[in-house]
Amino acid sequence: xxxxxxxxxxxxxxxxxxxxxxxxxxxxxxxxxxxxxxxxxxxxxxxxxxxxxxxxxxxxxxxxxxxxxxxxxx
Length: 74
Known about the structure:
Elements: H1 3-37, H2 61-70
């Protein structure tokens, strides 16, 4: 195998590895953007979640204070 052929083979392998790295970085960046776009405001835990909202029970003093601290965002 000639030196030029070895250099070409090495260059192709290097470029393929760099390309795969760029694809992986792009996938990570895109996944972050799509995950952020899919977020929605949730007002209740998912079905089967161990924490349940109890609208029939009044809030405790601590819960009312925390709700007051959160303000309109909560």
